[in-house]
Structures are given as structure tokens and as C-alpha cells.
Amino acid sequence: MNKIIFMIVATFALTACENTAEVTSGNDVTVSVDFPASLGGEQDGRLLVMLANNDGSEPRFQINPSAKGQIIFGLDVVDWQPGTAQTVDSSVLGFPFDSLNDVPAGDYYVQAVINRYKDFNLSNGKTVSLPPEMGEGQKWNRKPGNFYSAPQKVTISENGVQNINITMDQEILPIAPPMDSKYIKHIKMKSDLLSEFWGEDVELGAHILLPEGFDEHPEANYPIMVFHGHFPADFGGFSETPPDPNMKPTYSARFDWDGYNVYQAQAAYDFYKKWTSDDFPRFIAIEIQHATPYYDDSYAVNSASQGPYGDALTYELIPHIEKEFRGIGEGWSRFTYGGSTGGWEALAVQVFYPDEYNGAFAACPDPIDFRAYTAMNLYEDENAYYYDSDFLKKPRPGQRDYLGNIKYTIGEDNRLEAVVASKSRSGRQYDIWEATYSPMGEDGYPKRIWDKLTGEIDHDVADYWRENFDLSYIMKRDWATLGPKLEGKVNIYVGDMDNYYLNNAVYLTEEFLENTTNPYYAGDVDYGDRAEHCWNGDHENGNGVSRLNYNFMYVDKIMKRIEESAPEGADLTSWRY
User: Fold this and answer.
1) 394 burial class (0-12, 13-18, 19+ CB within 10 angstroms)?
2) Which of 96, 316, 346, 540 has the most CB atoms around it within 10 Å of its CB?
3) Are 495 and 532 in contact, with CB atoms under 8 Å apart?
4) The CA-based dihedral angle spanning residues 547, 549, 554, 556, taken in that order and rounded to the nearest 10 degrees
5) Contacting residues for 169 by C-beta, under 8 A, at least 6 apart
6) Which residues contact 38 (CB under 8 A, 6 or more apart)?
7) Measured between alpha carbons, how far is 401 from 463 in angstroms, rounded to an integer?
8) What kind and span of H or E run contains 509?
9) Would you call 484 helix, strand, or coil by DSSP?
10) Which of 140, 171, 202 is a domain's end point?
């Protein structure tokens, strides 16, 4: 009995200490933000106020969920008039602090940005307010047209009332389009399918790398390799000129590599020399641009909230490119590859359009089996942020390094998204999965897969995800008809210490593929020992090197696949010179 009493007293004491730690120092801080009429009329969007405890870069460039991420608060604004103030106070959602009043006393650099929205009148009669794509790939801190303030230094005192006044008097400038060269061309085309869905003209774009001898061989028609990935500003990793010998080396924290920029520049020139060499296969490589109001790319599939991007890319953009640049234009001559988001997309288009592509090389793909949706089982777990437990509240990890050290949790990552935007509009990872995979809600926005603040999973939405976008489940469900069309086409690569636990979904998918014999998938699943995100099948080089080699590292396998699978009478000669 005495032992029980002691435990109760000890627990009360611990709770009291925890509650005391959460009490603020007495700050009562507000931030008032306005903008001048010279920038424009009334505004809709998300007002973001950021504080950084250093002047290393503008606060807007220091917002992330890592240990070094800085402070942000977010507020939806509607019909905001110039010259009037919007106030961010203790009631406004923040990260990593719940309230402005929780921000410790000290010196900060404060900055405000509005991610401006516009109304889209969808073909189904719903109207949604979203940030339009402005050529930057849905980055609110770099989006042309967004208003922002210069950072200003402020001191938050230990106690007392304090109001900080900010005027957003600057506008992010437009981005200059890339220029064509002999080898690299850039196109845009109106998509009829997407324009109908969105209720206004929607363009798709691509950066196209033409083969050596393209102009000299007008009789040649070429296979096409579609490189999926995030919004590319231009065709990356290709340079006709060697690096400047006076280039100043810079350090890459990601790869712990001093002078990585110099290596990148040399690798781009080396790729040009390889591309133009006598014995390199001739084909067309493209990087597609398909940013949406939700993200820097559409995930290349048809979805309820983003529209028919899968059909638009496969049946509009790619045939347009093939017609314009003499592609062969048949399914056996098209291949897809990419990493991370691009890895998921490469596999997804192969699964959803099995006759239109002849092989997918999916590196470090986003979760391809939602039983391992990063660090959770979306169908069986009750909460996305915490492990199921009777008493303990143990958070699920969101990112790790190759030694297993946790950088941040799923809950922290999602809390940041909830601050950056409501209604799946943050332009960040979990929100775009939701915008792609979820059914549309009554309000026109994607249905939440879980409560953004608590993490409670909606299993009805999860069931919709499984039937429509769980690639492993769909392959298994439809293998009787899908399997014969995918035989020899599925190739998946991932590091076994992927930072986002993406290898777990690959394990489950491999188990199905390897144990299916009618037909056997006859592809490749491979793992990088202790390799982080985004390992792509290269056992000889680290990620810092192999990530630069996508455009040629699968070429031998592609050429072999063409030899084995091209139909009788296929053009196997015009492009081989």
C-alpha cells in the first residue's frame, strides 16, 4: 500500500514539473502585417510569419522540421485589403511552438510572406482556392508574385506586451525561362484533358535532350526515356562546356563532400562527352514538367483532386514530343525511370499504363505498399504519429540517418505542414500524397487521411487509397491480367537504410513479386547496403555520385530489353548509327 501511495505521489510530482515547464515566461507577443496598395488589391492566401535566431539566410529559407529548423506561424487570409493589418497572435498555429507566447525571449530576425491563392472553378462545379504554379515548382518561399518583407531584427523581452509591425513591400520576381541549345529543347503544350478539369488553360512542359546526330539523320526515329522527378528548371546534369577551373569549391552537407559543386560540374561535362561518343546508344531523354496547384509535380497519375494527369502525360504530352522530335511512338520503345517521387511515378505509370511503356526503373520509390507507409501500416494502425499503445505515447520516426539516428518524427513533419497551409495546400510531402491519393471532399479539397493535428487515421479514406493507389496491392489484385503485361518490366532499387523507411514497402512488394509464378515478374529488386535515400542500384558509388548518372545507368538494361521484346517489324535500325 505504501508503495502504491509513493508511486502516485511521484507521478503527481512529475506531472507538476512537466506542466511547470510548459508555462510561458509571461510574453504577450503579436505580429501585425500589412502590404501597400502598390503591390496589388485584395489578397487571398496563407500569411506566414517566421522568426530565426540567426542571420545565416532569410528566415523563409530556414523553415524545416529538423533540429536546425526555425520558427513559423501560419494564418489563412481572405479578401485582405492593402493598408490593413492582419494580426498573428497567440491563437495562430505555429511550429515548433504552439503559440507566439511560447517563443523564448531573445533576439530574432522576423519576416513575413504571403503565399497568394487564386480561385479555380473546377468542372465538377466546385471552387477551390489554391496557389497557382508560377514556374518555381510550388515553393512558397520562392514563388513569383508572392509578397514578402525584408528580415528585420527584433528583441522579444522576457515579460510584457509587445507588438511587432511588418510591411510586406517586396514581390518575388518572375523566373526567366531556359534557353534552347543544340541538344536541349524546351516545349510547352496545352492539355485539353487538364484544362477541362481545372476550368482554365493548363500547360504541360518538358525539357528534351536530343541524341547526337539528330539533325544529320532525319530518317531516324528514336526510343524515348522518360525521367520522372520533381519540377526541373532545366534538363539537369548535362553541360557542353567543362567546369570553370576557377570555380570556388562549396561544401555539401548532404554528402559530406567539400567541393561537390566542382564534381557535379565535371560530371555534367563527362555526361555530354558520353552522350556524344560514337558508341553511345541514340535515344531521346525527357524530363517532364507537370506542377499542379498542390505540388511541384502531379505524381503522373489520374487523381480526384488534381485531375487526369496520368492520361494527359501518357496520351497528350509524350505523343506530342514523339511527333515533334521523331520518337518511335510505340509502347515497346518507351521507358521510365526516376528516384523518390520519380521512382514511385516511374513504377506507377508502368502499372497503370502497362502497354504504353516497356520498363520502369524505380529508385528509392515513395511508399509502394501502404502497409509500410513510411513508418506505419495505414490499414491497421490507429494513429499516424504514435505507435498503438495502452499507456505510452511513443512517436513514430519520420527521418533517420544510415545509423538509425532519428532526425524528426512524422508528427513534427505534419505539424509543420499544418502551419504552412490548411487543406493539403502546403506543397510538402504528406500533403501531396493526400492530394494525389484521396477522394475529393464536399468542399472540393482532398479528404484527410488522418487528422492533421492528432494523427488519427481515417480508415475509410485508407481503403480508397488501397484500391486506387497502393501499387503493390493493385499488382497483386490484378496480376492475372496485369502480370503478363508487366513481365520483365518492373525494376526497383532502394537502400536498406533509406532515410524515410521506404525500403520497408519494397520488402513487402518483393515478397509478392518473387512468390508469384503465373507469370514470374522477371524483373529486378535490389538493395544498397546501409545506403540512404536515394540509392538507385549503383553498388560501386555513393549516392552523391550515382544520383548524377540516371540518364545513362540503365541504358544497357534498356537496350537488352528492346532486343528481347521489340515486336516483329519494329524499327531497330534507323536510330542505330
Assistant:
1) exposed
2) 346
3) yes
4) -150
5) 35, 36, 39, 147, 149, 150
6) none
7) 31
8) helix 503-514
9) helix
10) 171
- Pairing mode, strands 397-400 and 406-409: antiparallel
Report the alpha-carbon distance of residue 396 to residue 528 in Å, rounded.
24
Can you give the pLDDT at residue 28? 87
Return d(Cα 508, Cα 480) in angstroms, integer.
Answer: 19
pLDDT per position as a tens digit, 77-106: 999 999 999 999 999 999 999 999 999 999
Could you please report the per-residue DSSP string of 326-383?
Answer: TB--SGGGEEEEEETHHHHHHHHHHHHSTTT-S-EEEESPSPSSGGGBTTB-TTT-SB
Domain contains 178: no
Residue 25 has pLDDT above 70, yes or no: no
Using the structure block, give the residue that is written with the C-alpha cell 468542372. 123
Residue 82, in any domain of the structure: yes
Q: Which three cell numbers stand for residue 32?
A: 501585425
Cell readout for 413 is 513533419
**What is the Cα–Cα distance from 328 to 333, expressed in whole angstroms?**
7
Beta bridge partners of 395: 386
- Answer whether residue 340 is part of any domain: yes
- Let me know if residue 261 belongs to a domain: yes
Residues 357 and 427 in one domain: no
Region of 155 (left: φ > 0; alpha: ψ -120 to 50; beta: rest) is beta
Whether residue 544 sits in one domain with residue 446:
no
Task: Give CA separation, 101 vs 26, 31, 158, 321, in Å.
Answer: 7, 11, 10, 55
Asked whether 232 and 207 are in contact (CB, 8 A), the reply is: yes
Q: Amino acid identity of 291?
A: A
278 lies in the same domain as 379: no
Q: How far is CA 121 from CA 78, 199, 297, 309, 455, in A?
A: 17, 6, 20, 18, 31
* Separation of alpha carbons 45 and 425, rounded Å: 10
User: Same domain for 336 and 195?
Assistant: yes
What is the residue-averaged pLDDT of the chain? 93
- Residue 402 lies in domain: 374-467
Helix axes 459-469, 429-437, angle to 10 degrees: 70
| Cis preceding-peptide flag for 96 (omega within 30 of 0) | yes
Choose among 473, 530, 532, 536: nearest CA to 505. 473
Alpha carbon distance 115, 44 (integer Å)? 9
Do residue 256 and residue 342 come from a single domain?
A: yes
pLDDT band at 26 (very low <50, low <70, confident <90, very high): low
